[in-house]
Write a structure and sequence with these properties.
The protein has 449 residues and is of the alpha/beta class. It folds into four domains: 2-77, GMP Synthetase, Chain A, domain 3, CATH 3.30.300; 102-274, Rossmann fold; 280-347, Helicase, Ruva Protein, domain 3 (Orthogonal Bundle); 356-448, DnaA protein, C-terminal DNA-binding domain (Chromosomal Replication Initiator Protein Dnaa, Chain: A), CATH 1.10.1750.10. Helices cover 53% and strands 11% of the residues. It contains 19 helices and ten strands. It has helices spanning 2-15, 18-25, 45-54, 56-65, 128-138, 158-172, 183-195, 199-208, 225-240, 261-267, 280-293, 300-309, 314-331, 337-347, 356-367, 381-397, 402-408, 413-427, 431-448; strands at 29-33, 37-42, 72-77, 102-104, 111-113, 147-151, 178-182, 212-216, 244-249, 271-274. A five-stranded parallel β-sheet has the order 7-8-9-6-10, sandwiched between helices. It has a three-stranded mixed β-sheet with strand order 1-2-3.
Length: 449
């Protein structure tokens, strides 16, 4: 049966995508078999469940093709062989393993992320003021920047700067009584203190035993009148003692529904630091910094593609890089432009897919050409340049294969590759061409919305 199973695996390797086969089929081995039953061994429960749901019927078809029509298949998770004279390890261990990348704050409910430091934060025009303000907040000098409201959409860095301020404070002044907590945990802790008759200890902790308060997600306090009143008194006590306070939220205090005027006034009593969406130059810097940390080598084309397509959320930039890294390390995929486009398709699906026809119309309108002229054999610049730009844009803004794009201009596969590389190379030194590409890219993106 082992020989037959290996033959079936060979057939499946030719039928399935390389990554699918290596991840789900290749690890399967024959555990035991008889005249009507085959038991396959799986490396873990997740693989067992996925193969059972997606590939068992396919395996049965291949067995049927080998003359074993009535065979039943059972999937079992392979068990580890215990060492001689040693008891088997328990399935569940009572000791909690430490979480990576986190270090505890000095007394706070939550933890400060080890990598969220100022030197790991990429500064650009969109966040320069917020970076400087949070840095001043964390410095030992008695600056006027003692209360900050950090405002930004999700994923733009306000939590990073909050953690960074906490790290700098604790590293330079370890004796500081710093509390990092979300508004939700603040609420839950207060409710628990009320139920257990420990409200005075709660007040003591935040009003008199706190030097720095980092309070995240204050919009969670919406509609919680008693919690808001307690927080207002706490903020008054901290302000009177000249303590430092940092808030974060995606909404300005005036836009948080159900927020009392008293608390709103206290939240806006300090400095408002807003983080805008990063511009393309900053996104490129972020990608390069994070790719270096992941030891991921990226071409300029891939960096430009990711920076162009991923605009709103810095976390998506990091997610894209981690996906590329995982595909390269786990599945052996080559980190090229096609893989980057595949990853982007998962992260930011288009509401309306861009087609080569859309790009042809935009390019021809811009260069004042007839659509058929892109297919012509003319090598004149007035025809070849628009044709090459069309190919370059199709490679970046459509999901079409190289062969499919080649057919739209009656050219070969290699001609499409060459045109893409030619435009990418010329953009480095030809400022006018780069501006043309950027303008046309904006027109294409407008059709995707």
């Amino acid at each position: 049966m082992n020989i037959l199973w290996e033959d079936i695996k060979t057939r499946l390797r030719d039928e399935l995508p390389k990554s699918t086969y290596s991840l789900w089929i290749d690890p399967l081995t024959v555990h035991k078999s008889d005249d009507a039953h085959l038991v396959l061994s799986c490396p873990n429960q997740f693989t067992r469940a996925w193969v059972a749901e997606n590939y068992v019927n396919l395996i049965k078809e291949r067995l049927k093709g080998a003359g074993l029509e009535s065979f039943d298949i059972t999937l079992e998770v392979q068990t580890r062989k215990k060492a001689p004279d040693q008891p088997a390890e328990p399935v569940f261990k009572p000791v909690q393993l430490p979480l990576p990348n986190f270090s505890p704050s000095n007394g706070g409910r939550l933890l400060l992320h080890r990598d969220f430091t100022f030197d790991q934060f990429v500064v650009g025009r969109s966040n320069e003021f917020a970076y400087s303000a949070s840095m001043a907040f964390a410095m030992e000098s008695q600056s006027s920047c003692r209360t900050i409201f950090m405002l930004s959409d999700t994923g733009l860095g306000k939590t990073h700067l909050s953690h960074a301020a906490g790290h700098l404070i604790l590293n330079s002044r370890p004796e500081t009584r710093l509390f990092y907590i979300t508004a939700e945990d603040f609420t839950n802790e207060m409710i628990s203190s009320l139920k257990s008759s420990r409200i005075e200890q709660f007040k003591e902790k935040y009003r008199r035993a706190c030097d720095v308060l980092l309070l995240e997600e204050v919009h969670f306090l919406s509609g919680k009148d008693k919690i808001q009143a307690e927080l207002a008194y706490t903020l008054d006590a901290l302000a009177n003692d000249n303590k430092k306070i940092m808030f974060t939220s995606p909404l300005p205090p005036g836009d948080i529904p159900g927020l009392s005027k008293e608390l709103s006034s206290r939240l806006t009593g300090g400095l408002l630091a807003q983080i805008e969406r990063p511009d393309k130059a900053t996104r490129i810097d972020i990608l390069l910094r994070k790719a270096e940390k992941l030891k991921l080598s990226l071409s300029e084309e891939i960096v430009d593609l990711l920076a162009t397509r991923i605009e709103g959320d810095v976390r998506k930039l990091e997610s894209a890089l981690k996906c590329l890294k995982a595909r390269a390390d786990l599945l052996g995929d080559c980190v090229d432009l096609d893989l980057a486009k595949d990853v982007l398709g998962c992260l930011i699906p288009r509401a309306v897919a861009t087609s080569p026809d859309d790009i042809r119309e935009i390019v021809c309108t811009y260069f004042k050409l007839e659509p058929d002229q892109l297919r012509s054999r003319s090598r004149k610049k007035i025809h070849s340049l628009p044709r090459n730009i069309y190919v370059y844009l199709c490679r970046r803004h459509t999901d079409e294969s190289v062969e499919s794009i080649a057919r739209t201009i009656d050219r070969s596969h290699s001609a499409v590759i060459y045109a893409t590389e030619l435009i990418a190379h010329r953009m480095k030194s030809d400022r006018k061409l780069k501006q043309q590409i950027e303008f046309l890219t904006e027109r294409i993106r407008a059709t995707e919305k």
